[in-house]
Amino acid sequence: MEISSFTIILIIIFVLLKKLIQKEDRIHRINKNIPGPKSKFLFGNLFDLKGQVHEKINEWYEQYGSIYRIEFGSVSTVVLSEYSTLKEAFIDNGEIFQSRFQRKSRTACNKELNLANSNGEYFNHLKKTLANEMTNQKMKKKEKIIKRQVFLLSEFFNEISQQSPTNSGGISKEPINNIIKMYSLNVMLSLLFNIHFPYNSNSYQEELIITITRYFKSTGLPYPSDFIPTLYPFLKNKPKEYFEDYESVKKLITKITNDYQINHMLEINENSTIEDIENYQPKNILESLLKQYKLKNISYDGVIGSLMDLILAGSDTTGNTCLFSIVALVNNSNIQEKLFNEISNAFKDEDENDIDNENLNGANIITNNSSSLDNLSYFSDRIKTPYLVAFIKEVKRYYPSAPLSVPHLLTEDCEIQGYKISKGTQIIQNIYSTHLSPSFCSNPLEFYPERFLDSNNEPKIIPFGIGQRKCPGENIFEIEIYVFLVNLIKKFKLSHPINDNYQLNDRGQFGLSLQCPQFNIKVESR
Ligand code: HEM
Ligand SMILES: *[C@@H]1O[C@H](CO)[C@@H](O)[C@H](O)[C@H]1NC(C)=O
Ligand SMILES: *[C@@H]1O[C@H](CO)[C@@H](O)[C@H](O)[C@H]1NC(C)=O
Ligand SMILES: *[C@@H]1O[C@H](CO)[C@@H](O)[C@H](O)[C@H]1NC(C)=O
Ligand SMILES: *[C@@H]1O[C@H](CO)[C@@H](O)[C@H](O)[C@H]1NC(C)=O
Ligand SMILES: *[C@@H]1O[C@H](CO)[C@@H](O)[C@H](O)[C@H]1NC(C)=O
Ligand SMILES: *[C@@H]1O[C@H](CO)[C@@H](O)[C@H](O)[C@H]1NC(C)=O
């Protein structure tokens, strides 16, 4: 009796194992005709994917072309590069390429309930809710929120510029990276919760930015525990820091969200009927999410997880792009002068000093004070500054802020560029090589905004990814970077702390978003 049940269990295990292996075999069998580097037992190509992952991916691109195969542990992975190949997959076959590839380390944090990691019907609903709130029209109305942050940030630059008694400008005491990231974080916080942090280095804020940066860097790296199922039990919850960082940001966002509900959504309470809730008109992105939660269409974890997506994705990518744009200005003083002339002609003597002097201590509730700023839009007038518009495109091309996008999962067998790819394959959008290969444009390694001035002949960049999963933050980003640069360039001359013959290092460090190296800067008032 005992022996026979033991045998049955053995048979069941055997059948399950065989099924599992067969399933994997099927993927590898189908994908094996796709070219790519040799891979090692168990680990595949993981050992080559440490550190500067995007540079290795680019090397393989140069060797194997616009479609190649690598192994992330036992996960068969196909890397797609160049616009035509990416279009064939993510647009012509969009439906089967739209799913997110789930990594255990992320799933353990967000339970796949957030925007960036969910799939299927749940994802579609969440995406629709957010996309409705983040349209071009709605984001344009938020320009004054962004402008307010830019003006507060310029006060910080002003302080640096006044450090020298001889009026010849001043040099930042510390690298400005965290302060610039505070700008993009504040834009998201004020957009979502109507709060922001002051622009000084208070230890709590500094720690928050450092945590977000560290989390964003590590969430892009391929961890062995995500790709080698046999090792998972031993590597579970490692690296520890990654999970601690996630939890500490989650704690903050949960607190701010709870506070918001208590203070701002009084109309909906435990006595509200479904009808009351359905009739409630959400005033912003956060309220839209909370409304869907109250309607039981998404879970509270989904609300918090999606807010975290917006805050993390929204601040680190944008912050690094703002930083790289400063590097490009410093490294190319002729471009900076040209931009200064264009901007000061386009936007003459508008009043900018009309912000309230708030009590800048910890996170502030933003006062709702209307001023002449409200009626002034730089962004709607960007047609007046064609060179700046081209400069921003070149920054997005040259420093692709999400170099390998966010991994996808192929959900049906498919043929791309004549190669058959199996369902179940992890798919990587190689934005980095797409923007920087000679097949994209001439002299791709030269920083040259002029290439975007001929609108009939403009190269097609894809910094926000491509297809149904494309970044929902594009509209807000475009306003953030434009208003940021208009103000900074108009008011200040930025240069290398030593002298104009020196240049700033611009070799990005790999992460889910490409990290700009730390730098100090010299600031002179114009
Ligand atoms: C320089 C700025 C930015 C760049 C280069 C960028 C790039 C990207 C890329 C490449 C993706 C993946 C697309 C795909 O999987 O197909 C993505 C996804 C995402 N981005 Fe951005 N992004 C930027 C700014 C923002 C901002 C400001 C926000 C928030 C307001 C944001 C929120 C998100 C979210 C929530 C996703 C996940 C979307 C999904 O899974 O469907 N991003 N972004
Ligand atoms: C909900 O209804 C109960 C009973 O009528 C009442 O005591 C309570 O104060 C109400 N709560 C709110 C927030 O209005
Ligand atoms: C959201 O919830 C409401 C009420 O429970 C329901 O009528 C509606 O169909 C749901 N919407 C979606 C898109 O699931
Ligand atoms: C900035 O300077 C570094 C170091 O000289 C150089 O490698 C890089 O190409 C420069 N970047 C730009 C955009 O000019
Ligand atoms: C802020 O101003 C808007 C319109 O100017 C008004 O509808 C809203 O009630 C104000 N909010 C607060 C908190 O004063
Ligand atoms: C705007 O803010 C200032 C100072 O913070 C205050 O004195 C003034 O009354 C406010 N104006 C309005 C319209 O709320
Ligand atoms: C903004 O413009 C509107 C109408 O265009 C005007 O009524 C309002 O007074 C203006 N506000 C400020 C602060 O200039």
UniProtKB/TrEMBL annotation:
Residues binding heme: 471
Keyword Transmembrane on entry: yes
Gene3D superfamilies assigned to the protein according to its UniProt record, in alphabetical order: Cytochrome P450 (1.10.630.10)
Main location: membrane
InterPro entries per UniProt: Cyt_P450, Cyt_P450_CS, Cyt_P450_E_grp-I, Cyt_P450_sf
Topological category with respect to the lipid bilayer: Single-pass membrane protein
Family: Belongs to the cytochrome P450 family.
Name of the protein this chain belongs to: Cytochrome P450
Protein source organism: Dictyostelium firmibasis
Taxonomic placement: Eukaryota, Amoebozoa, Evosea, Eumycetozoa, Dictyostelia
